[in-house]
Specification:
The complex is a heterodimer. Chain A is an alpha+beta fold. Chain A contains 15 helices and 20 strands. In chain A, strands 11, 12, 13, 17, 18, 19 and 20 form a 7-stranded mixed β-sheet that branches. A 4-stranded mixed β-sheet of chain A has the order 1-10-9-8, with no helix packed on it. Chain B starts with a helix and ends with a helix. Chain B has one domain: MetI-like fold, CATH 1.10.3720. Classes of the chains: A alpha+beta, B mainly alpha.
Chain lengths: 559, 283
């Protein structure tokens, strides 16, 4: 340090000392005034901290871990300490911006919340039973539906056949998936009767179609805000809906089917599995479904406080094998090489291995894809010129590689990892590509080799919904290059075939063609796993469909 | 006179201690680097081999850190994950160092419009929350390790650029640089021979300090599913995978999480020591 620098430094030190002196003199001069100010400052800061912590939800213990900024309290008040009355609380995995039941798949949620109801419903044994309707008489191509007596909307207005007809017309208008219903004619001879004529031919699955949750009946005249507050017939009515967030419902005092047990229902928007688990353990919610393998282990270890329910669903995971990117031999070899049992073994309780798209005991599930056969898989590839070199099949010096596209939901990514391992062990080098969500990527741009997906394959106890969803040329899930005229004709024939044996035969023929193409590989069948707090009941936990949930008889758990 | 001598000795002693600490830490860092590079050869089990029967087993002599939900050896995966996590971090720090230093030197030496434009860009990038920007970029590019490095690298070069620029601006006005110019040396020659060697010290110190935070950023993005594709082992993604089993198999989370903690602490401690040593040399 030279002399100039030392001089500057010493001057700086003098200035610092002066400033410190001035500050201390100020403190002495101000005396009590300063401490008063300080106290006020402390009080003000504390107030700001308390208010901000309340605003951000850090300080509150009620309401659970709601997201989306929605208030969890709403108008659905009541004690949750008894098994009758109170507010039933649960969680919703998916976030959505509307609860208009005719749009998209929102009705799957609204029906679960006890907001909407349909003419028919599917019971625990997969049978179609009346709900708002008294019954249906089908004669050739005419179905006569009689509505129940005394059914009304939450505002007290009666449900008439004309309103049901208008709801069907609105559904056709709003959702493209129900365009086929526009070919039918609807008549209302009186307030309780709706006559549906299904064109020139018989439509055997009419009753099944009327049980779909999308066909929720709303009061179209009284509803002013379809996206946020539809007026429906369920045991609960919307109290507060936060788009992409929580939903609070309160008791429908005009419910047509007896007294509603709970004062209200709250579904918190919660996508994270760990948050759901902890919310249940903390007593913030009464029940939830879609629980994970680890949750099953945790809750089953505490049977005194939790009730676990597990029923096989018709939801399956499957892989599409793109026929435009993978040759026939490779697709066939992959179908033969994958060990589904081994995949299911890693996810006990969550899912079981499945042969094909339908249960083997269903009349339309008699045809199943070939079983695992490693030797045959090798032969298929070798017949096509592939050679097994250093554990990898090669052709023309190039190793056989495939990419498995998948997404992180419902253990789809875990299935992909296990498939990859099995393919690598077999001799096909597999990579994994994870996308945020499949519908905006490979399901629409078809840019994949192998992709994983899952959906309900048997929605109404009839394979027609699956044919329309994945087998027909124009179907959404026809992304692997299977759709063809011959199968389309068979599907069209199936649509109007009445005789059950003939229908089963046709369905099996269609599925045989589908399986033979090796464009789809069915992997696992999910279970619907739900957990309920002790005392809680009536969450449709024994129903194989997730779109059923709370009802008038739902009870709240004991804390 | 005697007091001054004692004081000098204390200073020297402190410096010597600092030097010794830095060397020891440097050796530990080197050992960790070597171990992580050869990790696949040390792994006692196949880190990718699944086993339904052995799933979620607590630590045993066969599986030192237990097994994960697919029955894979967590210890082997931590070892293999070290290679991914540490070398990805080092690669990113080196790349950011080279790019940032080069840009900073050019801006500092030439100034003018180019300097203004680049510095405003760095201002913009520094004003954005780095991890949020990285999440957005990685989300657009898609999940892979390379994309993660790109996402973090977009902002990480800025600190090097600013530091290099300020040092270059100081150095370029020193008399010996003017002498070089007078003797007809080219700008490139001056930058390479006279400017770069004089700022490389503080730049390296900055780089060693950045290793820890970069490692955390990579692990953070991997935790969010924007890093390596499964089943590749990487510490951040391992924590994410094990999170669902925290209550029944906590070792699947603690093993990679503690590895991250240890590695970040080690590199940060090493960086601090290098920084202290460099400062003591300047004094």
């Amino acid at each position: 340090m030279n002399s100039e620098e030392k001089r500057i430094k010493s001057r700086c030190d003098v200035v610092k000392i002066k400033q410190a002196d001035e500050f201390s003199s100020y403190m002495v001069l101000e005396g009590e005034g300063f401490s008063m100010k300080k106290k006020l400052l402390v009080v003000a800061l504390s107030t700001v901290m308390v208010v901000s912590s309340l605003l951000t939800g850090c300080g509150g213990s009620s309401g659970g871990s709601s997201s989306g900024g929605g208030s969890a309290s709403g108008g659905a008040s009541g004690s949750a300490e008894t098994t009758t009355g109170g507010v039933f609380k649960s969680v919703e995995t998916f976030a959505y911006g509307s609860i208009d039941p005719h749009k998209e798949y929102y009705s799957w949620h609204t029906q679960k919340y006890g907001l909407t109801e349909t003419l028919f419903r599917i019971n625990d044994d997969m049978e179609i039973v009346p709900w708002l309707a008294e019954g249906i008489e089908i004669e050739d191509n005419v179905g006569t539906i009689t509505l129940k007596d005394g059914i009304c909307f939450s505002n007290g207005n009666p449900v008439t056949s004309d309103m049901v007809k208008r709801n069907i017309e609105r559904l056709i208008e709003v959702s493209k998936r129900f365009n086929y219903m526009s070919e039918w004619t609807y008549e209302t001879p009186d307030d309780k009767t709706l006559v549906i004529t299904t064109g020139d031919r018989v439509y055997p699955t009419l009753k099944n179609d009327l049980a779909t949750p999308e066909l929720a009946i709303m009061d179209l005249d009284a509803t002013t805000d379809f996206d946020n507050n539809p007026i429906c017939t369920g045991p609960f009515v919307v109290d507060k809906f936060v788009p992409q967030g929580d939903i609070t419902l309160k008791r429908n005092d005009n419910y047509w089917d007896g007294e509603v047990n709970c004062d209200g229902v709250v579904f918190y928007s919660m996508s994270d599995d760990q948050s759901k688990l902890m919310a249940m353990q903390n007593g913030e919610i009464d029940a939830y479904d879609n629980i994970t393998t680890s949750d099953i282990e945790i809750f089953s270890a505490d049977p005194d406080n939790y009730t676990l329910a597990s029923v096989p669903m018709q939801m399956r995971s499957y892989a599409f094998l793109n026929s435009e990117k993978l040759p026939d031999s490779v697709r066939e070899a992959i179908v033969l090489a994958i060990d589904k049992e081994s995949i299911a073994a890693f996810l006990p309780g969550m899912m079981s291995a499945t042969e094909g798209a339908f249960d083997t005991d269903a009349p339309y599930g008699k045809v199943q894809p070939p079983k695992r056969d490693i030797e045959k898989a090798k032969q298929v590839l070798e017949a096509d010129g592939y050679k097994l070199e250093n554990g990898v099949f090669t052709k023309g010096g190039q190793p056989l590689t495939v990419t498995i596209s998948c997404y992180q939901s419902r253990n789809i990514d875990t299935i992909a990892v296990l498939m990859q391992e099995q393919l690598n062990a077999f001799g096909i080098k597999a990579d994994i590509k994870i996308v945020d969500e499949p519908d905006g990527t490979y399901m629409t741009d078809h840019n994949y080799e192998i992709c994983l997906y899952r959906s309900i394959t048997d929605k109404t106890g009839d394979p027609m919904t699956w044919f329309e969803l994945a087998v027909e040329s124009i179907s959404y899930q026809n992304i692997a290059g299977f759709g063809n005229e011959e199968t389309d004709k068979l599907i069209e024939e199936y649509r109007y075939t009445v005789d059950p044996d003939e229908r089963a035969e046709l369905a099996n023929e269609i599925m045989q063609q589908y399986y033979d193409s090796n464009t789809a590989l069915f992997l696992t069948c999910y279970n619907r796993n739900a957990v309920l707090r002790k005392g809680a009941s009536g969450f449709s936990e024994t129903n194989p469909f997730e779109f059923y949930g709370v009802s008038a008889k739902t009870t709240v758990g004991i804390k | 006179m005697k007091k001054e001598k004692v004081k000098m000795n204390k200073k020297q002693l402190k410096k010597a201690r600092l030097k010794r600490k830095t060397i020891i830490l440097g050796i530990i860092v080197l050992i960790v680097l070597v171990l992580s590079f050869f990790a696949p050869y040390f792994a006692p089990n196949d880190p990718y081999l699944t086993n339904a029967i052995a799933a979620k087993h607590p630590p045993t002599s066969e599986f030192l850190f237990g097994t994960d939900y697919l029955g894979r050896c967590v210890f082997s995966r931590v070892l293999v994950g070290a290679r991914t996590s540490i070398f990805a971090t080092l690669m990113l720090v080196i790349m950011s160092f080279i790019v940032g230093t080069a840009i900073g030197i050019i801006c500092g030496y030439y100034g003018g419009a180019v300097d203004n434009i680049i510095m405003r860009i760095t201002d913009i990038l520094l004003s954005l929350p780095q991890l949020v920007l990285a999440i957005a970029v990685a989300g657009i590019l898609g999940g892979s390790l390379v994309n993660t490095l790109i996402a973090i690298g977009i902002t990480s070069w800025t600190s090097y650029a600013r530091l290099a620029r300020s040092h270059t601006m100081r150095i370029k006005n020193l008399p010996y640089i003017n002498s070089c110019r007078m003797t007809g040396c080219s700008d490139f020659h001056i930058l390479l021979t006279h400017v770069l060697p004089n700022l490389i010290g503080p730049m390296l110190v900055n780089a060693t300090l950045e290793i820890g935070s970069t490692m955390l950023s990579i692990a953070g993005l991997s935790f969010l599913g924007l890093g390596v594709a499964p089943p590749a082992a990487e510490w951040g993604s391992m924590v994410s995978e094990g999170r669902s089993f925290l209550q029944i198999a906590p070792w699947t989370v603690f093993a990679p999480a503690l590895s991250i903690l240890f590695a970040v602490m080690l590199f940060n401690y090493f960086g601090e020591s290098v920084c202290d040593l460099a400062n003591s040399n300047e004094v």
